[in-house]
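Note on ligand handling. Small-molecule inputs were canonicalized before submission; formal charges were left as drawn, and no protonation-state enumeration was performed. Where a ligand contained multiple stereocentres, the stereochemistry in the source SMILES was retained. For pyridoxal-5'-phosphate, this procedure yielded the string shown in the input block below.
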Amino acid sequence: MNYKSTRDKSINITSAQAIAQGLSTEGGLFVPDALPKITENDVLALCDKSYADRAFDIFKLFLTDFTDEEIRNCVTKAYGDNFDTESIAELSHLLTGTYILELWHGPTCAFKDMALQILPHLLTVSAKKTVPDKEIAILVATSGDTGKAALEGFKNVEGTTISVFYPEEGVSDMQKRQMATQEGNNVFVCAVKGNFDDCQNGVKAIFTDKEISKALEENGIMLSSANSINWGRLCPQIVYYISAYADLVKNEEIKYGEKINIVVPTGNFGNILAAYYAKEMGLPVNKLICASNANNVLTDFIKTGVYDKNRKFYTTVSPSMDILISSNLERLLYHLSGEDTELINKWFGLLKDEGKYEVSPQVKEKISQLFYAGCCSDDDTKAAINDCFDSYSYLMDTHTAVAYKVYSDYKKETGDETKTVIASTANPYKFGAAVYSAVGGDCSGLDEFTIIEKLEEKTGTTIPQPLAATKNKEVRFKGVIEREAMPKAVTDFLNNQK
Ligand SMILES: *Cc1c(COP(=O)(O)O)cnc(C)c1O
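Structure output:
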């Protein structure tokens, strides 16, 4: 299987090239040239396998230029005791016909671990095949979850280093603590005076600085990114939807062939796109339900066919979905337009120039057959957390709660009784203050650790070990710098690593 670009028909590369390169030079995203199919026998064969073995089977379909041994090595390193449950992606039964797919049992307690625990290994294999003898230097600008998950994924991975920049005032106390206490001998973390855009622009400036890349090149170092548009992050996400279906069959909740709905709390459209790919591969899926918070650009798009980012940006209690440009949507539109790179160039050119485009009626029709979309406010989100805890003694985080609320709206509106899997993207303790106040707690004057201890007491749930552990860990990274100082900070770090 080869990979193409969504914006250039002439590109035809291997999966290793797609993963090593990340983004196509003309700005397009890499997509598989044909989706592999999975049959009833393939899915049934997964039922009795471990998560790592399930991942092995699915990866083999997509990474055809990797050897079996290479794939085996990657999945074994990624999906083991770094997760706190043997099933890795745990399927929890909420009530008859509604299931929660817990994607947050990894080291940082958020679903980004599902991909970022394996990306470093996919990337080092890919680099060996395409740019041998190069050391990979990962640069990340983060507003929270991605930075920590990338640090945990890349820490002590041979042949790589990772530098993470976050806005000094733009992340939660827990997120700051998680990053400042990061362990590993190849990691660098630094706060930047400014907001997330300053961090991101600083990182982009380093990537495009010819002098820096020349100096690094002479040192045998290649810059790369762990961004969510890398195919090496998307492919691992397809696995858990197929795995969840296999678990439903294994647990006799469904018979093979019975369709399920999948609900996904959505930001950059990566997670729900993976569910779309699973459906297109042949997994019996009915509706894909796209849930947004007050930043509801996708809800409007799916309902009207008009994507318009010219709107107010809201800071919400589900910050990982506070996004106005959902990059991975480009991949969906590429497939639904019949791989029409000209149309993609036109639409994404308009998005860049005017912040707005409208898809053709045919594409709009296909979208409305595949997807349902809905959104909800912070008040609705908190009410959903409280309602779910009251009814089922199940404590959800704020992002999962958006999905839960949109799904209940969907059910009311359509009467659809199809069995449904809700993707749960973070452990509730990651967003302790919002969750504690949702279940009636009073956070005023309390620090993050006191809040999560009170949440534990009130709900009888348990603080996950990785979050509890940050309390007594040594703070290793205290630096706060101006955006202009970022290039020097990175080059100093990389030179010291040599
Ligand atoms: C990143 C993230 C999301 C959004 O996922 P996308 O793939 O960007 O749509 C949702 N919830 C949490 C907790 C996240 O960290």
